[in-house]
Design brief:
Arc Repressor Mutant, subunit A, Rossmann fold, 2 domains, three-stranded antiparallel beta sheet, 10 strands, disordered C terminus
């Protein structure tokens, strides 16, 4: 993308406002239209120009389309190169200071983000209220979240680098490691869960977290993209956990870590119907075999007993060479 393309894309007051808004947080097209006070079709035309110029990128989640600034790890637009992208970002910041009209408009726009955040939080409260009973029933079977999170903190002490939170759900684990991660990618298959995660994580810097809709059996990332891959109470949904861990190994950099939080093997058959669990937990032997075949060296593990279900935390380190899917042990259905 040439500098002229980028400058032409920015040569409009609405698009300048959009770029300043996206520096604060990722927004749905409808949310942008609400802040800007313009129709969605008109806002969509501006978005297309910004995306075509490599300054922003769209991501569809179910019936919603979200927009974020297209930035690399240092905050510069991906299509421009670090120096040019950083310079353009600084120009927009400086423009607010020297142009009182533009600065006042941007400040007013950011005030509208307060209403956007409040609306997201109200939606999250409603969702939790509707599902509270079924979640409380499951929680009553195992240890509380606090002790599990404390052990996770011990096992992942220090920097976790580039973190992939697989099946992020409400975004709690991503939030937990926000300070120790250089960047967080929170992935979930459910658009509704991603909206909950977005609400929880909206206080983080816009370039620090990416929310991605995707399937854990087909991760939409390049090889070696992450230093830490974490599965928190999600592997039991996998019909073929061997394929899921093969994908995890593919996107984990050599020397990177995997962490699996899940139930030890149990016989609560009703969880298949009530919570769509495909697996009734895992034995240590199964996880060891799966990790080894995927290309991880099994490392430390912990057990946390609850009421009826035991929560296990298994860890592994990515070897430089990983196994092929043909080498995976076949897990019998539990």
């Amino acid at each position: 993308m040439s500098v002229l393309d980028s400058l032409r894309a920015l040569a409009d007051p609405t698009r300048l406002r959009i770029m300043r808004l996206l520096a604060s947080m990722e927004l749905a097209v409808g949310e942008l239209a609400q802040v800007l006070g313009q129709s969605q079709p008109r806002v969509s035309r501006h978005i297309k120009i910004l995306c075509d110029a490599g300054l922003a990128e769209r991501r569809r989640e179910g019936g919603w389309v979200f927009l974020r600034a297209a930035v690399n790890e240092v905050g510069a637009p991906e299509g421009l190169g670090d120096d040019l992208g950083t310079a353009l970002a600084r120009v927009l910041v400086a423009a607010e200071a020297v142009d009182s009209g533009f600065g006042g408009q941007c400040a007013e726009d950011r005030q509208h983000l307060v209403a956007i955040r409040a609306a997201r939080e109200a939606s999250a409260v409603d969702y939790f209220a509707r599902h509270a009973a079924e979640w409380d029933k499951l929680r009553s079977l195992h240890i509380a979240d606090g002790p599990v999170e404390a052990v996770l903190g011990e096992l992942l002490a220090g920097s976790v680098g580039r973190l992939l939170d697989v099946g992020t759900g409400t975004g709690r684990i991503a939030e937990l490691f926000a300070q120790s991660a250089s960047h967080i990618t929170a992935l979930d298959k459910s658009p509704e869960m991603l909206r909950l995660a977005r609400t929880r994580l909206q206080h983080l810097p816009a370039g620090h977290v990416s929310l991605v809709q995707g399937d854990f059996a087909q991760l939409p990332f390049a090889e070696g993209s992450f230093d830490t891959v974490l599965f928190h109470q999600v592997l039991h949904y996998a019909l073929a956990p061997q394929a899921v861990l093969a994908e995890a190994a593919r996107v984990t950099a050599p020397g990177g870590r995997i962490v699996i939080v899940d139930f030890a093997a149990h016989d609560r058959e009703e969880l298949r119907a009530s919570h769509a669990h495909a697996r009734l937990g895992f034995s240590d032997a199964q996880i060891t075999a799966l990790l080894t075949a995927a290309g991880f060296e099994p490392a430390e593990d912990r057990a946390l007993a609850g009421h009826e279900l035991i929560v296990k935390i298994w860890t592994g380190v990515r070897r430089s060479e990983r196994g092929s899917i043909a080498e995976f042990p076949r897990l019998v259905s539990q």
